[in-house]
Hints:
The chain has helices at residues 2-13, 86-89, 99-120, 123-135, 164-174, 237-252, 277-282, 286-297, 331-344, 360-364, 376-388, 394-407, 412-425, 429-432, 443-461, 469-479, 485-502, 504-518, 530-561; strands spanning 26-31, 33-37, 49-50, 63-68, 151-155, 181-183, 190-192, 257-260, 263-269, 308-317, 320-330. The protein is of the alpha+beta class. A hairpin with a 2-residue loop joins β10 and β11 (320-330). α12 packs across α19.
Amino acid sequence: MLLQRLNELAERLRDDPEADLPPPLYQSKWLRYVIELDAQGRLKSNEPTDLADPGDRHRKSGQRRHLPDIGRSGSKPPPILLADNAIYTLGIGPEDMDAAKIAVRHAAYLEELHACAERTGRPEIVAIETCLRAHKDELELGEFFTTAGNITFRVDGALPIDQDWFQRDWLTLNTPTDGPEMQCIVCGQKKRVLKRLKGKIKGVPGGQSSGTSIISANENAYESYGLDASLIAPICLQCSEQMTKGLNWLLKSEHHRITLGPGAFVFWTREASTFDFAAMMDRPDPDQVKALLSSAFAGKQAPVDSNRFYAAYLSGSGGRVVVREWLDMALPEAQGNLAGWFKRQQITRAWGEPHQPLGVYRLAEATVRDRKDLPAQTIHQLLVAALNDRPLPANLLYRTVERTRVENGVRHAQASLIKLVLCGTDPRLEDTMSELDCTIRRPDYLCGRLFAELEAAQRMANPTAKATITDRYYGTACTAPATVFGTLVQGAQAHLSKLKRDRPGAYGGIQARLEEIMSGLEAFPATLTLEEQAYFALGYYHQRAADRAAAMEHTNSQEKES
């Protein structure tokens, strides 16, 4: 199904000038040099035009453009006409390369060039052949010349590689005539199929820099029914070109790709859509999320929509693309899943402000000390859960809770991710765990709230303290409350006495909250399970956010009165 959908995408993009898809058997590649010729094949300039940045001549890039390409491989790779390196084009190679091998490759290039001139009868090709046979030695290559850079020719002001006649001839030349006739797995028609795909997939993490193939079998273990290479999934040249172009376009687009370390997620829809899933998952805009929630839950989404949403998670394994995940669903279903994802992650921010929607990277970072330590699997799990409406695995809860113990506190992203995981097992928590909920009388949640209040009493009584009870006891309090809460409650009496004397208003508020919390605790739990530790973290986070919001509101009201 993936290949058919990519083929359909490429067909749609053909009519979109902004997509800028390469012609058949062309790829977006670096062009380094252009040799300028007149109509008779004489050099207009003895020095090739170098397209590299003049300020950095040592770069091997040049200019990115559409060039002929056939994904060559093997011990005798064929020449790429009018878009090859100096070894093939000029017969000049690096000093450590065998001279005989250079001569063989240059001879193959000249032979192919002569055959092209005979097939097309174009004077431009004749002019290029004349130059290479009679005027090549007149070229002055200069000290910065690199034999690895691709070279093309401009004849009488025009590039033959950009002309329709050359593109048609290049396609004809490389269309297989000796391959087996089989049913193409994409179009379903019986055609001559490719033993090896011509194009390469570029930009798949973990793949070869020269490109990877999405259909390949170069070992016995990958072969099927005696079929090898690309014949294990027979595909015709046209469909191969289409699906390769479509996937390469997705991998280049920041609106259709999210890179995940050793892999990449690509997203697209069957019909053109302005909905940017990649941006919503990576950099969600609060207004767009609000509109998404309204449309999905207020019935504004059209009940019938023929458009489809597709997503694939890809990684490279040597020269092959590995498809690790494939999603195919109605677009409204995907949007509804995403809306549910954002609703489940809603939670007040650390100072009581409204929730800020978080992308997958922000959420994933809640599980590690540093972003460089982030495993790609974590982001993969978050993306799949968001798009496919799946519960998040318990290992994310473990890693997040563990980070709160290591950091001795709970950040907004950590609280949001904890709530996301818990909602996967109990959807009712979507509404009850977004902010402080005093109706929740679970001992674990109450212990978290109590810990926040004891910390608040210490901070108010001794604002210059270098370390709080959270810095010292959070890890123990959230795993084995009974071992520390007796000591903490007893130690808080001195703080409360000081507040009662110096700040009676603050004392009254804290004392009331302490009494309300402890009225629900018959005893402190001896130990807390992983899920209970998660509720402890949310209780602590909710209570701190509510106290901070109340303090800010009190300060603002006093300022207005004054």
